[in-house]
Amino acid sequence: MKDIVITALSSGLLTGILTWAAARRKTLAEAQTNELENVNRAVGYYREMLDDMAARYKDAIRELQQVKVQISSLEERIIKLAAENRALIDELKKYKQLNGKQNENR
Q1: How far apart are CA 49 and CA 1, in angstroms?
Q2: DSSP assignment letter at 104
Q3: How big is the chain by its Cα radius of gyration, in Å?
Q4: Which of 40, 47, 81, 89 lies 20 to 30 angstroms, CA to CA, from 70?
Q5: Given CA atoms 55, 56, 59, 64 in this order, what sign does their dihedral have?
Q6: DSSP assignment string, 37-51
Q7: Considering the entire predicted model, what is its pTM?
């Protein structure tokens, strides 16, 4: 009878240890799988953010280049208008001089 109890207890103990070891391995494997899934989600999230930032950066660069072209165009126009303004001032001075001489002749 003692032998049966010892055999049953040792058999139950051995089965319990083996079950615990297998469950522990399974739990560790599931934990690692969950951790990897979480890391993959995080990497995907950050990848999307970086892609979005890269697209925004390209758009900003494109807009900046357009603004530079507009600024250059406006600078050229300012130079032309300044030259035209100087020419008009010179013409106005000539007109005033002529007008002044005509008034002296009267």
Answers
A1: 71
A2: H
A3: 45
A4: 89
A5: negative
A6: HHHHHHHHHHHHHHH
A7: 0.53
What amino acid occupies position 24? R
Which amino acid does the sequence have at 92? L
| Residue where the block lists tokens 């020419």 | 87
Residue 48 CB coordination number (10 Å): 10
Which residues have a Cβ under 8 Å from the Cβ of 31 and sit 6 or more positions away?
none
Of 28, 27, 21, 26, nearest to 13 by C-alpha is: 21
Residue range 32-69, pLDDT digits in tens: 999 999 999 999 999 999 999 999 999 999 999 999 99
What distance separates the 2 farthest-apart alpha carbons in the chain?
153
**Two structure tokens written together for 33:** 């799988």
